[in-house]
Amino acid sequence: MIAPHQYIERETSLIRTERFCGDRWLNWAYRALWEDAAWLMKALTSQRTTQVLGFFNYDRPFSATRAAVSKCARALEIDLSECLDPYDRLNTPRRLFQRRLRYWQVRPMADDPRAIVSPADARLLLGSFADDSSLFLKGKFFDYDELLGRDRSRWRRLFSRGTGRSFG
């Protein structure tokens, strides 16, 4: 089963499922190829492949239509009222993806100087390094011993009963 990309909505504290263009392919690449074919993963994540995928997803001429951009915005549940630029300026998928937000109004930061702010969209994974727990990373569950190593007693003592966070 493919794990969805989810986040907790700030205002309502509800778990929301985020949709991405090409999500099925990304999940396939990470799950089926990550550990089985390192050479293929290297090829799929190369600069050249990224450029080709960027062109096909954001720059091809027939995708730069108002209808295509509107369809993508609806599919990704993008709230265009949050955008700094007027809607007519978001006339290509790339401009939609790279849109500037009125963050000071629609996504204000906490006033607490101890608050941690992530400057980019990311998925936050929280977990515990308790002896009897496991963390879900890269599509697999890892227990405490697997992550730190059964033969690494010093590491195990240092991280015993600790918590972990990962942004990805």
Please give a structural write-up.
The chain is an alpha+beta fold and 168 residues long. The protein folds into two domains: 5-106, no CATH class; 124-167, no CATH class. Helices cover 37% and strands 15% of the residues. The protein is built from eight helices and six strands. It has helices at 23-33, 38-44, 47-59, 66-75, 93-97, 103-106, 144-148, 153-159, and strands spanning 5-8, 15-18, 124-128, 134-137, 140-143, 163-167. The protein has a two-stranded antiparallel ribbon. The chain has a two-stranded antiparallel sheet with strand order 3-6. Strands 4-5 form a two-stranded antiparallel ribbon. A hairpin with a 6-residue loop joins strand 1 and strand 2. The chain is globular, with a radius of gyration of 20 Å. The two termini are 20 Å apart.
- Total of domains: 2
Radius of gyration: 20 Å
| Strand count | 6
Order of helices and strands: EEHHHHHHEEEHHE
Mean pLDDT over all positions: 77
Poorly predicted parts? none
Classify the helix fraction into a percent range.
25-40%
Beta-strand proportion: 15-25%
Going across the major beta sheet, what is the strand order?
1-2
Q: What is the 3D form?
A: globular
Largest sheet: 2 strands, antiparallel
What is the distance, rounded to the nearest whole angstrom, between the alpha carbons of the first and last residues? 20 Å
Structural class: alpha+beta
H/I helix tally: 8
Outline of this structure?
This protein is of the alpha+beta class and 168 residues long. Helix content is 37%, strand content 15%. The longest helix is centred in the N-terminal third of the chain and has 13 residues, at 47-59.
